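Fresh eyes needed here. Kindly weigh in on this sequence plus structure tokens:
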Amino acid sequence: MLKEFARWAMALGPWGIFLVSLGDSALIPMPQGVDALLIAQSVAAPSSAYLAAALAVLGSLLGSLILYWLSRRGGQIMLERKASKSGIVRMRRQVEEYGALVLFFPTAIPLPLPMKLFVIAAGVFQMRLLPFCAVLVVARSIRYFGEAYVAVRYGEQATAFLKQNALLGLGIAAILVALLFVVHRWSAGRVNRAE
């Protein structure tokens, strides 16, 4: 069934990737399904690779917003089903201390990280909407446009290239997270001094 769905999505081109990304981010987890489809679409039709990446980002944002709003209404129950009490306390602390930055790593890295759990926590703990959207768009753009670029550049060898350079990607993401953390701390310090 999953193969049939993938063929159907590929037949729709970039809009199929949008729909898969929307569904994956909203409710139906498809671990690395968007990544695989985006790479396949970019290899098959390089001229539409960046449109496909943009639609993947848009689908992910809209799907995450759906999950965010559902979580604001009744997400505590969803969170309690997916995380232990100590995990929930830890997530609350992270959201309160780092804000939307807690979303960056699980959103930017194409590894099976529990992104939905952080989106649910963002809704439950009333994360501000603008930073939520900004971090999600930046992280997903790095991920999806990076994959599209690699697919266009390396063609059929794109998947092998991404696997061989996974540690480099993790290192770059860790540096970006650290940089965002420093900027967050610096701007928070300036706001506190201004008060």
